[in-house]
Design a protein that fits this description.
Blueprint (H helix, E strand, L loop, with lengths): L2 H71 L7 H69 L11
Length: 160
């Protein structure tokens, strides 16, 4: 095999190995970015749920005050009987809605954190895959060069 052909084989092998290495790094970078975004989305989901719960509780309190005022304006004793039951029901329903918002936000956040963890693992795997692919390419290139140079092809020897 001539020196030019051997040099071309070495250069091609090197370029291919570098490309595999870079591809693994680029995939790792993209997946790590996605993981970070998923974590940010998880924090936002929890924050949004807390705000929703606060708004729901405030609305229930306002609704209870309005019901109390309406009962009082019509001459009903607001501290007993049906008026008191209605006020309690309004607050209980409001609290259930607020807790539902919090649980929904927590579940969404947990799902997003799980997604981020999987993306992080995939990033690591992409890097390892790129490194192993580059190593395999170098080894294959070396084997091809050795085979051609060492006469493994049955051509009678490896004259450069």
């Amino acid at each position: 095999m001539c020196v030019t052909a051997l040099a071309a084989l070495a250069a091609g092998t090197g370029l291919q190995a570098f490309g595999q290495y870079r591809q693994g790094r680029e995939q790792e970078s993209a997946l790590n970015y996605q993981s970070g975004m998923s974590l940010a989305d998880a924090a936002a989901a929890e924050g949004t749920a807390q705000v929703q719960a606060k708004v729901i509780r405030k609305a229930a309190t306002m609704q209870r005050k309005e019901a109390t005022a309406a009962y009082g304006a019509s001459g009903v004793d607001v501290n007993s009987g049906t008026a008191l039951d209605v006020q309690g029901d309004i607050l209980a329903r409001g609290e259930m809605d607020a807790l539902t918002a919090l649980i929904t936000g927590k579940n969404t956040a947990e799902r997003l954190r799980g997604q981020a963890k999987m993306q992080s693992r995939a990033a690591h795997n992409a890097r390892v895959s790129g490194n192993l692919g580059a190593l395999a390419t170098v080894l294959q290139g070396g084997a091809k060069a050795g085979w051609a140079y060492g006469g493994g092809g049955g051509g009678g020897g490896g004259n450069l």
